[in-house]
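Margin note from the TA: students keep mixing up input and output lines. Inputs are the sequences; the output is the structure of the whole complex. Example:
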Amino acid sequence: MKKLLILLAALLIPLSVVPASAVQIRVFVTDMNALGVQNRDEMKATLQMLLASRLTGDKTIAVSSAGEADVLVSGTYVTIGKIFSVDALAKTAAGKTLTRAFVQGESQDELIPAVGKLADKLSADLARIYSGALPEAGTAVMPIPAAKTLTPVKSDFIKNEQQVNKTPAAEFIKPHDFEQGAAGGWLSKRLTGAANLLAVGKTLLDGSREIFLAENRRLSYYRQSADMKLVAEIELGNSEKILSLDTMENGDGSLDIYLTILRSEELSSQVWQVKGDKLVLAVQNLPYFFRSFSLAGGPKKLYAQAMGREEDFFSTVSEAVRNGSAINLKNPIKMPRFGNIYGFNQFRDRDGTTHTIVINPDGYLVVYSQEMKEMWRSNDKFGGSELYFQKDDDANVRVTGDKRWVFMNQRIQVSSKGEILVGKNDGFWVLGNARSYKKGAVYCFTWDGSSLSEKWRTRDTQNYMPDYQYDEAHNELIILQTVQRPGITTRGASSLAIKKVE
Amino acid sequence: MSLKRTVAIAAAAGALAAISVPAMAFENEFHGTSRLRYFLSNYENGGGGNPLVPSATTGLIGAPTGSTTDDLKMNNYFESRTRIFYTAKASDDLKLVTGFEIDSVFGDRAQGLTTSGGTFVAGGAVATGATGRNEGGALESDTVNLETKWVYLDFKIPSTPIQVKAGIQPIKDQLKGIFLDADVAGILTIAKVGPATFNTGYFRGYDQSFFGTARPRGMDNLDIGLVEAKIAATKDLNFGAVYYLYADGRGLNGLSNGPVTGINTSAMMLHTVGLTADAKIGPVALSGFAAYQGGLLRNINNAAGTRNAPDTTAYLNALAFNAAAKVAIGPGTLKAAGLYTSGNGNTDRNHLTGWVGTSQSQNQAWSSTAGTSTYNESGMMLLNRNAAAGTGTTDVAIVYNTGNGTNPLNMQGLWLATMGFDAKITPKFYANTNVGAAWVARTNGLKPVDRATGRQNASNYMGTEVNVEAGYKMYDNLTASLQAAYVILGGYYNGSSTFGTATAAKDPENPYTIRTSLIFNF
């Protein structure tokens, strides 16, 4: 009898946890912020009340407290000139993002109808999520504009708890579980050219985003909205090779595009800018490797490192500021063993102590203390890139008959919350200097005081992942994939995937 | 004890050992190079050395094997060389580095008729059926032709900045290889302190007791010492100082200078010191060195008796200078370089002044066809020994030794000026071209005789090489290339062909080579 009761209880528990689709979803509007308006507090209260009342319908019902609610909704009302926008974010009580939506209008007269439309969108999205329905086939879900929301029903992110705590439901892996690739998020069409590098520019007024891709000798400027629109391209000389691509916004709002270029085995880097629909060369022949990133999760800055006469990466990495055609270096950062501008970052632990993380030549993540002593090293390999440059190897050419190969590596990005993101490629053919990776993923770690703990990782791409970027402002991962490698007469092809980080 | 119990104890011991040994992240690293080349050449035939060395007795230059007239026949052959490098990496600070080589020429020898080339065989006899290095390309192959090139431990001494390499390893001097560029057994330490790097090493080139001296091991050696210091002062400037010791306690037999042959010496000690620099000034990369070589050769004598008695020691004072520049222009790189090594006159005194580039000298015999000094930045294919353009068993050059001689007594010295342009025509197609001219620095017995005059030529101009290499990168790791080089011999060789007469003197045929290569590097 006792066993029967336990079995009954076990069956009932999931029923009580999973909300039935026929039942209305209980929604609580927690907060509405108002920017750029007079009587701000009054407007906030008004918007909160308006949205709550319009969220009450067939599918959703507004409740009076967060404790009663299944879903918490917060939002922002902002006016710029005559245009206004109301943006809303729906989360579970546990804080998990469910959906985002926005509406915009051109005058105050349109505000109340707009709030109604916003409530309709939220209701529809929430109803779909809680009913477990998948998006209609063939409809791409767009992160920008946010009205086409990303669905968390089937995640591109594998969280650590999933791997550790859950036991498989069966001994057999069903196709659904086994499915990889871009199950959600946004995926570009096939882009001509096997790009090695990716950089994100500014978000434009129309909501589109500037994306820059670089092949060995070509820089392509795209605008990404519903699709990727090629705006401009430039091609470098035959003796030049692009080793890194980064962007940096200047104080005047203009964007610098930094191309690290190797020419005749010496650095001859360039800075480009977007002028209208064109790419314009701003500075050239700069003898530095460049990379822009958020050191220890701080503000994004430009960094530079020189090449020595024999050393590939000479001495320290410094903050770099462009002043016309000159690069001024300051605040040098001493590199630990294996550290160079492309394979390192820093993070802070709970005590605020800064540690350095690098990918060593064998692909292991190594964490160093402030005294540059090794503290921890991963058991798995990370990083991996097919992009390389070559230098004369006079000491060994008698025997090898070859130049020296120096491979670039994946970015290590650290978010403002201290999360450490690392790219990883796996290959079926990685032998010496012959590299051909077949799948990639981005891993997110946090420092638990003694080691890096995996927080989540993306599903493996079905292709080599040359580069990725974490856009913290939009909370999105932008992943570049090589869908076809360049051949003797072809440039190959790439694709871009954008995944909302949940 | 019963068998069962023994097995159980052994199994338990094994399991305990497995548990108690800490796990190590062992890395296996493979690299390699494989190249197949097809040669068309009048002087190259798979061997090494300078094909234009005059006869010691007549001063005239004969034809290479296979040709019996001044109109030389063209050799054509396929040469294959594969090298595999395996590194067993126990940690960042401990690894075992190995390198292996397989060479052959299409149709050479195989099965039971290989030679034991490279192995010391009394009387130089060919041992049929023995293993055959550089062979195995004949029908049905099946030849034991795997050679071990490198085997050395590479480790860091804990809590120090000192890295140690111990075993058979590649060593190249910092004088761009003009003294020593070889694989040699020994111990090298590398200490990096800030921007400075200090190298010290001891290498044993030969131990004569292995050639039957009935002496204890390690008493009659060729010992090589190395001390190098280099500082990366700024990103644009490196400079350094080097010292190399070449102490040959075995003595050398059969040395010569022109008609004087059969000269022996009981010991040779060379001290080489140099200063090196490598800088970038604006867009131009500059490099160079200045070096002095001093030493002595003990108990020099020949068949006629002790030379220059009562002082039987010869003293050496030699110099070498180099300067090179590179600059990126248009679609490629423009290069220019010059090398000077001092030369030796006729050895009628006990003062030698010819720069000695090292060479193999197994069993006390200095080899003029198996060198261990190189000068690669010239870009030449036939004019001087450029290991970067070669890397096969074919190893022919007119200036084969950087001292421009065939043994330490007849180094003529060298003036070598070269220019080149490496261009990328498309991202996958490249074309390199070089031109270079060489002169001997001093006249000695190695200079050819003009048959018309019966005397050595007055000119020191050896010749000018023009070469071109065009290649196509089919993949990142696979390149197909075509090399062609032609040398216009200079006045140094006037009328020195053995096929001429006093009334109709002939010049040796100008050397040429055409090489088609398929190169896979990984």
